[in-house]
Amino acid sequence: MNSLERTFERTPQSVGQARKFVTFAVGCHVDIGRSDDICSCVSEMASNALLHTSESAGGFTVRVCVDQHGCVRLEVHDHDRDTVALSARRSPSDDATGGRGMFIVENLSDDWGVEKSPTGKLVWSQFSATAGEETHNACDAVTSETAEYQCVG
Q1: Long-range contacts of 104-108 (CB under 8 A, 24+ apart)
Q2: pTM here?
Q3: What is the arrangement of strands in the sheet containing 72-78, beginning at the earlier edge strand?
Q4: What CA–CA distance (Å, rounded) separates 120 from 72?
Q5: Which of 104-111's residues contact partners 24+ apart within 8 Å by CB, and which partners?
Q6: How confident is the model at residue 141 (pLDDT cuts 50, 70, 90)?
Q7: Sequence-ordered list of residues with C-beta below 8 angstroms from that of 15, at least 6 positions apart, any chain
Q8: What is the pLDDT of residues 45-69, one digit of tens each?
């Protein structure tokens, strides 16, 4: 089990930094198609952490876990206790100027959800190693301490 996390400041540049971070974290563990899906999802989740939290809530943390099967769990933690992510269960209208972020996450990931955390909320998404394979719970055995992360092979 490999896990890596990084905290980002509350700035627009952090979304791109989060995407680069996730690209590095999963790059040698999953096929390119899944990597693109994962990076698109972290962009949407990080953008939501910026757009839908108050300035006083501070930055956000991205955590990536990869299990021995190459399945990935992506988490974005923020410190806003008052905001609950909107469900993507309904498609945004064609003329809507927003509201597509979690709809994109729902359609690119194998599973996703929102949980309250002791310090705010956590939005997560999971991805199998390749399309059509079983998704494992990649962060199931990880403790709060982040394991050292290395790309192998």
Answers
A1: 104/40, 104/41, 104/44, 105/41, 105/44, 105/45, 108/37, 108/40, 108/41
A2: 0.79
A3: 2-8, 60-66, 72-78, 120-127, 111-117
A4: 22
A5: 104/40, 104/41, 104/44, 105/41, 105/44, 105/45, 108/37, 108/40, 108/41, 109/37, 109/41, 109/74, 110/135, 111/135
A6: very low
A7: 43, 46, 47, 50
A8: 999 888 878 777 789 999 999 888 8
